[in-house]
Amino acid sequence: MEDLKKKWYVIKTMSGQENKVKSYIENEIRDNGFQNSIGKILVPIEKIVQMRKGKKIYRDKVHYPGYVMIEANLEGETYHKIKNVSGVITVLSEGKGNTAHPTPMRKEEVNRMLGKMDQLYEKVDPLHLPFVVGETIKVIDGPFSGFNGTIEKIHEEKRKIELAVLIFGRKTPLELNFTQIEKI
User: Fold this and answer.
1) What span is annotated as the signal peptide, if there is one (predicted)?
2) What are the pLDDT digits (tens) for 31-67?
3) Is the Cα torsion angle 43, 48, 50, 56 positive or negative in sign?
4) How many CB atoms lie within 10 A of CB 170?
5) How far apart are CA 24 and CA 88, in angstroms?
6) C-alpha 28 chain-centroid distance
């Protein structure tokens, strides 16, 4: 029955301390029996790809630095325990001072956050390049839309392609995103 009262809240933390705060809150739940008052605790993570010394390195990046999302019933003692966790600055609320009461996230925000979180984490996939050097392609976006060109170089890490387009009988070099071109 208490699960019905749980809502999503945003906790402002010290930047870079999001995972520590999550861990501290989980310890608080375990040690002090707040299992009925606190549900999920999320630090939205985004997988990013970096190039280092010619190698792709996948790493996690906090998508909302300085914020932790928590599903909880923040009534009475639970609210004060959360506020007093090391690294927590405040629980986002309307009003100021002692009269401020934590403001839950709207349902649309929660759905967007949970959907976006899944999307961000699953977004990174091995690069699939449907293009090859020397291939003739068509520009479908930008000021050169409608022109055909020949691929001269492919920059995987930037997700860009260098191509030569014939304009007024002269080859003109362009650098475009993969999304701005298509196969003929």
Assistant:
1) none
2) 888 888 888 899 988 777 777 777 778 888 888 889 9
3) positive
4) 8
5) 10
6) 27
Domain covering 136-183 in this structure, CATH number? 2.30.30.30
The pairing of beta strand 101-102 with beta strand 45-52:
unpaired
Regions of the chain with pLDDT less than 50: 1-3, 124, 126
> Using CA atoms, how far apart are residues 84 and 18, in angstroms rounded to an integer?
15
Tokens of 57: 């390195």
- For CATH 2.30.30.30, the residue range(s) in the chain are 136-183
Helix or strand run (H / E) with residue 97: none
List the structure tokens of 169: 């009988």
- Which pLDDT value is given to residue 184? 85
Fold of 2-122: Alpha-Beta Plaits (3.30.70)
* Sheet with strand 38-42: strands edge to edge: 38-42, 67-72, 7-13, 88-91
* Contact by Cβ (8 Å): 141, 159: no
